[in-house]
Specification:
It contains 34 helices and 5 strands. It is mainly alpha-helical and 658 residues long. It has a 3-stranded parallel β-sheet with strand order 2-1-5. A two-stranded antiparallel ribbon has the order 3-4. Strand 1, helix 23 (376-385) and strand 2 (390-393) form a beta-alpha-beta unit.
């Protein structure tokens, strides 16, 4: 039933006025019924059910429609399954239940669950009646379960969606309990119990299936249930015993490999992954699993690039994307924007988390004095969170971060003294809205972020540059409000990231070498020291992951920028250095000389930060910083501590003394 999403997609999408829309569809259906056009009326009732499955008036109108058609059996013709959409399918399920055709009715509800598991399709009286489990043959429930569980039902089902599925699960439990000798029913039922977090029942049903009919499926399901219950060693023992009996299931080999890797035993898992790949070179999961387990073993991004290559060369192997997303999740630049480390941002966090935050906002913001120029985008975050606040810099530093590190034709920042100002005009309102709707602080993996940004391809260069320094407000939703109130810098970095990714799609018909998009990204990479340097670098990495022909060029340019930042770090703070190093590490095709240097630099920055924290007694209490901000001035250096200088650099680069 893959066509269930077809139909009135806009209506099915719903919104804040779902019930009102469903009531309107139902009222319209009644008017059309009065005119005698029953097929037309049926289409509107299907729309109403798709919008709000529980509206009583809709179910009453469906009963009226059945009566006008000559009974529920005759009304079935009004909801044909040759071109179904989900509302019509659910209406037909209710009519078949009214006819006593329980098998067909439950099967259609299962199809609706498969299509949209988080909607309350099963919250109807006929499905929750006490006698229904006795009316359903076990084979029927087995087929319905296979249809629902074998589709897109997540594992586990999110807590918020479990109530929608509860009646269907309760029916499953009742039928399984009435038929303890049905091995297949118990095995598939175990899968639904597992998804509900009902681990004891999932294990018991899988064991029950194995006792009744020992075989491959019960063993696989038992392993899944044990794994979900946090008993990985037992799951591995069950699976390995099954593989000793039947070594034909390459997907199970992959599961074994990944469970070993997920429990810190990647080297053991690699044996299984490589065994699967050797047995089935074209298997859609085996080769991706090898790359994923290898990355779990040594953390080398080369394995992630290999996954991206596999996904590009084998678009029919989506598991490569799944593994890549799993290995990228919450990793800086792989799956989320890297965090900001500026003193401005550190002090801002302390203000925002203090009890006086609202009073500071109401009083016109805060005044913050930094001992040295920091990336201008940090000031953007300060202004976003504390409108009316004032940020001043005491000195520039040497080498001057206000100057580009190479000749540039495009700059998005200019300086008046020590104050950074946008060097480009704001984007159009339409461009701002599109960036607001596109930007995200996280993404599945770099190729996915690159693909998502294609929706920005129609924006002009002026708009894409303008939004870098004139970012829109976050969306007015739960996440947007959280970012605005607690982590404004993440939103700024998200907007800049996707603006730069949008630049990678600008004039994409031009060959990379000599293209306008490359030239602009290089200008941003080498411009005045700012978060934009980082996001331009990430955009270039995303291009290189998708196009091996540009990898040498991208790696070289990022290495040059890293070396410039490292040189500056000998004499002053360079807050973007560690992030640039992490981006260089995402170019594993580079010579080890450069990737080793990047790792050493990251370690040096970490040691210096730890030494600074220890020397200054950080972190400072949020109340102290907020109080300083509310009364006048909160002064921050690279550690956010008033009036103190960071200790000399240790490790790879020592701070020179003048």
């Amino acid at each position: 039933m893959d066509e269930l999403h077809a139909g009135d997609a806009e209506l099915c999408a719903g919104g804040g006025a779902e019930r009102l829309a469903a009531e309107g569809e139902t009222a319209l259906a009644r008017l059309i019924m009065d005119g005698g056009d029953l097929p037309h009326a049926a289409s509107h009732l299907g729309n109403a059910v798709a919008i709000d499955p529980l509206l009583p008036e809709t179910h009453e109108a469906l009963s009226e429609l059945a009566a006008r058609a000559g009974g529920p059996r005759a009304a079935l013709d009004l909801f044909p399954l040759d071109h179904p959409y989900i509302g019509a399918v659910v209406c037909r399920a209710h009519l078949q239940a009214a006819c006593g055709e329980w098998a067909e009715a439950v099967g259609l509800i299962a199809a609706a669950v498969r299509a949209e598991y988080d909607r309350p399709w099963s919250h109807v009286a006929w499905l929750t009646q006490d006698r229904l489990p006795d009316l359903l043959p076990p084979q029927v429930m087995t087929q319905a379960l296979a249809r629902a569980v074998g589709g897109a039902l997540p594992d586990p089902v999110p807590e918020a969606a479990r109530d929608a599925l509860r009646p269907f699960y309760d029916l499953t439990r009742a039928v399984v309990e009435r038929h303890p000798g049905e091995a297949q029913l118990a095995a598939i039922g175990s899968g639904l119990a597992r998804r509900f977090g009902d681990h004891d029942r999932a294990i018991a049903w899988a064991r029950q299936a194995g006792r009744v009919q020992p075989g491959h499926v019960p063993s696989v399901m038992l392993g899944y249930a044990l794994r979900a219950a946090g008993r990985p060693d037992e799951a591995l023992r069950v699976w390995e015993e099954e593989m000793a009996r039947d070594a034909s299931d390459l997907s199970l080999m992959v599961d074994i490999a990944e469970l070993y890797a997920g429990t810190g035993r990647a080297e053991q898992g690699l044996v299984w992954a490589e065994r699967a790949a050797a047995a089935g070179p074209g298997h859609p999961q085996a080769a991706p699993a090898v790359h994923g387990v290898r990355h779990a073993a040594d953390g080398d991004p080369a394995h992630l690039v290999a996954l991206a290559d596999h996904l590009r060369d084998h678009p029919d192997h989506p598991y490569a994307g799944t593994v890549l997303a799993r290995r990228s999740e919450w990793q800086p630049w792989l799956g989320v924007v890297d965090g900001a480390t500026e003193a401005t941002v550190n002090v801002l966090h302390q203000i925002l988390e203090s009890p006086e935050a609202e009073a500071i906002r109401a009083g016109g913001g805060a005044r913050l004095s930094a001992s040295a120029v920091e990336p201008p985008s940090a000031a953007l975050a300060f202004a976003l969170a504390l409108p009316g606040g004032e940020l001043t810099n005491a000195a520039a530093g040497d080498p001057d971060p206000r100057q580009p590190t190479a000749e540039t034709a495009v700059r998005v920042w200019r300086y008046e003294g020590l104050t950074a100002l946008p060097a480009v005009p704001p984007p159009s309102p339409e461009a701002s809205a599109l960036l607001r709707d596109t930007a995200s602080v996280s993404w599945p993996h770099p190729p996915a972020a690159y693909d998502h940004a294609v929706r920005l391809a129609g924006l002009g260069l002026d708009d894409l540059l303008g939004v870098l320094v004139h970012p829109p407000q976050p969306p007015d939703d739960e996440q947007g409000r959280f970012l605005r109130e607690h982590r404004p810098e993440l939103w700024i970095r998200a907007v800049q990231t996707f603006a730069c990714l949008g630049l990678t799609h600008h004039r994409a018909d031009q060959p990379w070498e000599g293209s306008e998009r490359r030239a602009v990204l290089l200008d941003l990479l080498h411009g005045p020291e700012d978060w934009v340097n980082e996001t331009a670098a990430f955009a270039m990495v995303a291009v290189a992951w998708g196009d091996p022909a540009v990898r040498a060029d991208v790696g070289l340019r990022l290495t040059e920028r890293m070396l410039d930042a490292a040189k500056a770090y000998q004499t002053r703070e360079v807050t973007v250095l560690a992030s640039l190093c992490r981006l260089v590490l995402l170019c594993p095709w580079l010579d080890d000389t450069y990737t080793s240097l990047a790792r050493d630099l990251i370690a040096a920055v970490r040691r210096a930060d730890e030494a600074t924290d220890e020397a200054t007694g950080r972190p400072e209490a949020p109340e102290e910083t907020a109080a300083a901000a509310s009364t006048g001035t909160a002064t921050g250096t690279a550690t956010g501590t008033a009036g103190e200088k960071a200790p000399p650099r240790r490790g790879l680069f020592r701070r020179r003394r003048d």
